[in-house]
Amino acid sequence: MTKLTLGTHPFLLGFEQLERLVEHTAKTGNDGYPPYNIEQSSETSYRITLAVAGFREDDLSITVENRQLVVRGKQTDDGADRTFLHRGIAARQFQRSFVLADGVEVDGACMENGLLHIDLRRAAPESILQRIEISKGGPL
User: Is residue 22 included in any domain, yes or no?
Assistant: First the structure.
């Protein structure tokens, strides 16, 4: 018995790129930091919230690269001037990726009380009917 994958299933044509994207996302270094929530606030809108305490807006970047939402954080370590008796809050960099479906766009982002909120919206799909004419003769 042969196991069919998403990219090789005979009814799913052109999904090879999606399968590669899912594999790539599974292999990336999302190590659990920073913690995050994903909420669906309506049928067409979502919110990703990341706990980024200690980060300023200038320490964070949000990009969309090849249908992936990528959030990066890099703090500048200003601890050279200070003496810590205990240091439990590290200046740690991170990269967190989320795969976006076709039609999902970033609507905006804001910081509030150490939380980074990223709002997404999905455009309502258009119903398209395309009629294909059958020509006489051989293949194209």
Answer: no
> Which tokens in the block code for residue 76?
């500048």
Q: For residues 37 and 48, is the Cβ–Cβ distance under 8 A?
A: yes
Tokens of 85: 């008796």
Stretch (H or E) spanning 63: strand 60-65
User: Which domain covers residue 63, as residue numbers?
Assistant: 31-122
CA 120 → CA 124, 130, 140, distances in Å?
Answer: 13, 30, 42
Look at residue 127 and tell me if it is in a domain. Answer: no
Q: Looking at the domain assignment, is residue 13 inside a domain?
A: no
Over its length of 140 residues, how does the chain's per-residue pLDDT go in tens digits? 556 666 666 777 777 776 776 676 666 655 788 999 999 999 999 999 999 988 999 999 999 988 899 999 998 766 578 888 998 876 789 999 998 988 899 999 999 999 999 999 998 777 888 898 988 876 66
Task: Point out which residues pair with 111 in neighbouring strands.
Answer: 116
Number of domains present in the structure of the chain:
1
